[in-house]
Amino acid sequence: MNKISSINEFVIKFANVNGSGSASANQMFAKGIFRSGIPVSPKNIFPSNIQGLPTWFEIRASEKGYLGRKAGIDFMVAMNPQSYAQDVAEINPGGYLLYDSSWKRDFKREDINIIEVPLTTLCVDEFNNPKTRLLFKNLVYVGALSYLMNINKDIFIKLIEEQFKGKEKLIAPNVQALEIGFKYAKKHLVDACKIKVNQTNLTDGMILTNGNNAGGLGCVYGGATVCTWYPITPSTSLAESYKKYCDQLRVDENTGKNKFAFVQAEDELASIGMAIGANWNGARAFTATSGPGISLMTEFIGLAYFAEIPVVIFNIQRGGPSTGMPTRTQQSDILSCAYASHGDTKHVILIPSDPKECFEFSADSFDISDRLQTPIFVLSDLDIGMNDWTCPEFEWDDNKKFDRGKVLSKDDLDSMESWGRYLDVDGDGIPFRTLPGTHPEKGAYFTRGSSHDEYARYIEDGEVNARNLSRILKKFEGAYKFLPKPIFKQETNASSNGLIYFGSTEAAMQESLDQLSCSGFPIDAMRIRSFPFGPEVWDFIDQHETIFLVEQNRDAQMKTLIVSEGNVNPEKFISILCFDGSPITANFISESISDVLLNKNTSQPAEEIK
Amino acid sequence: MTYIVKPVNHHPNLEKNKLGLTRRDYEGTISTLCAGCGHDSISAAVIEACYDLSISSDQIAKLSGIGCSSKSPSYFLNQAHGFNSVHGRMPSVATGANLGNKDLLYLGVSGDGDTAAIGIGQFMHAARRQLNITYIVENNGTYGLTKGQFSATNDQGSKSKYGEENVFAPIDLPTMAIQLGAGFVGRSFSGDKQQLVPLLKAAMKFEGFSLIDIISPCVTFNNHLGSTKSFDHIREHNESVSSLDFVPIGKEIKTTYKEGTKVDVPLHDGAMLTLEKLSKKYNPLDKGQAIQSLNEAEKNGKVLTGLLFINPEVKDHAEILNISDTPLNQLAEKELCPGAKKLAKINASLN
Prior knowledge:
The complex is a heterodimer of chains A (610) and B (351). By secondary structure, chain A is an alpha/beta fold. Chain A has 3 domains: 191 residues, Pyruvate-ferredoxin oxidoreductase, PFOR, domain III (Pyruvate-ferredoxin Oxidoreductase, domain 3, 3-Layer(aba) Sandwich), CATH 3.40.920; 184 residues, 3-Layer(aba) Sandwich (Rossmann fold); 123 residues, Rossmann fold, CATH 3.40.50. Helices cover 37% and strands 20% of the residues of chain A. In chain A, the strands form 5 sheets. In chain A, strands 11-10-12-13-15-14-21 form a 7-stranded mixed β-sheet, sandwiched between helices. A 6-stranded mixed β-sheet of chain A has the order 3-4-2-5-6-7. Chain A has a 6-stranded mixed β-sheet with strand order 18-20-19-22-23-24, sandwiched between helices. Chain A starts with 5 loop residues before the first strand and ends with a strand. The radius of gyration of chain B is 21 Å and the shape is globular. An 8-stranded mixed β-sheet of chain B has the order 2-1-3-4-8-7-13-9, sandwiched between helices. A 3-stranded antiparallel β-sheet of chain B has the order 10-12-11. In chain B, strand 1, helix 2 and strand 2 form a beta-alpha-beta unit. Chains A and B meet through strand 9, helix 7, strand 11, helix 9 and helix 10 of A and strand 2, helix 3, helix 5, helix 11 and helix 12 of B.
């Protein structure tokens, strides 16, 4: 029997039943590999369900740092008889299947290696309580894997100790469960697995965290004092992360009072309304939501745009349209954010590609929003938001100061002859604002979503309204100066073919570019990090004959945005589109591109659609 | 509507309040509502209340939704910041504003369409959260700006200007607010300044959610025979439960009351509300009884006015959330950003 043999490069998948306590054991296993020095990308593939439906946890380990999802499983831990058939089918030839052999099965695949561990029997023998038996099964397989893959068992023991800090009673039985699996494998499964983990130091200086945790922390560092939100997958954990870090970092030591407000609103209409109200008063405030929430918020987003009130909106994108696939990933809200709300509106978007950028863009978004006095979208997705990523440690420069933008103080107002809330005095389209309560006689004005003149007075004069709309556009057009610039994979362009991508696609991109290069198709790549696009984006497009635009949506929304904003020829673009809800893979990108390049002179390339 | 600036010349001998300001200093722009609109009387009452309380306008934020009522904040307190938000959503904007700076006085101005229909959810949740706001509903039972459709507070059987009969039961906002836990609930009539001004002052001083439902007849679309929100109908069916006197801190109580009818309610800052009960049965501190009386009055075609319910024990939203004494919008950067050292610890917890 052929056995896949690999060191520090493999994909392992766990098939479990939702609500069976598997998630924490699987996460512990991923962290065990990470602590062995191997970069990992665990992905939780879960149903919109609390208990009973199938759920999967996929871990790619790669010392090359290729952390995109990869189709084909090298090692499957099949814990859910409901999904045996599909799980077994996914295993690569020569791969491994570990299952609970308390009930023996014939899986009818001759080309894979079956590893039998009687998990239930082992737990029944050792533990009395039926509920703990069920939970401990998960740790028993972690123990078995620790032996099979040669992962230092002490790493897992330490992880158990950390996890149950404060509940010390639970440490011993958990370690016991781990040992049961380890001992069983040592006795019965010698040389059963040729996939091994060899300790390295590749994860020194790295952390394993998800984008929502990072985004919530970024809000604390960015000075946000108000979080108003409504629960919606996959954004909920961002708001909860903000609360978690505020509880640690923002409670006054002397008074025990909160230097933050955390409000679960009655719906998304209220959550954005509250965030706008707080920002109107000069408190940095944000809301976190996903596609359906953005749809509900659009009226208020138009108000903030037109009345020029800063507000930060996190959109952790999920599969759409409508309720869609709440627990799957997509990049399909680009247009609904860029042009959210009725009338002529355009919005600034930041697009992070990993948790580190989620932290940085989150903190920076408040400066940008205050500077531009407009809503800022931080457009992440479920893959970044809810899955743990191996990424560099967060950094903070203590010399950095908040940029509160053009806000007039009492002294400013005293020294001014006259002031107009919507008057562009220095040519950048950005007016000065005042905050309520600043001055007893000066600076008060009426904020409104109805048409207004430079002095915030209600008007129905079309010319005045057009003048105001043009000024807001001017502000928007200069916005790129404050936004993160695109990232280039190459120092200088070397190909006539360019590739544009953004967001979570980053995880698959280096591997894909390496594959293309090996196949004789080197390609220049640019990652877009914000909208509106700056000159670097237009230059890159100009410098290439063909542009492959990789997106995780059906309708090539980024292409639409580029073509409509830049007046560039749409013929130049070939879209590579993945919208099945799973994170895009390197193989899919490189195969789609090489197919096009191979056939370029024969037939007209159709848009590649997965 | 256009923006009309009022002349600023004052008569030199105008009476001044503690801040040295005259009533005119509390005015806004000239109203563009219909002549005789009840809402303009309410604006005048707001001016009177703020003048009497000697509040500096810059410490007030006036917020509204959309509709005739929501235009009216332009017509008072020129030196206060105003926010004319979107239809029915003023409560959320006010909630956020209050989170940002809990020290300002929030005046919410809404109408029956804005509050009882499109915005009923936000209204209910603001009451439930005990948002510290004086929430005024300028209630005329009709959609004026869109020319006379029924609103959700319009009484069943009441007739529109065009003779159409309203077939749906009304929503009674005070009853609902009391049920939801609002700390201060009153009702008044735009034509009764004597009742309205003390009620407004008490509401502004109250720390928590104060609703004042003010019947404010629409002279253009809902002031005819057959309407239950007309001036004539309200004057005939108005039944006041109490007469209210607001006594600021340190002032002597001068009004005299009949034995056994007086109730003193201390407010948070030491000011005192003195109520004379006009009905022996009515106790504004009793939630159940207040709701029962409102239900009975409705059955009998009466409009109960005055201070309907007060719970002086409530904590407001900011207090419930344990928000720091310094308003959140005034916290310095060093109090907000934890810095690099703390970040190193967080990094260590993630590897």
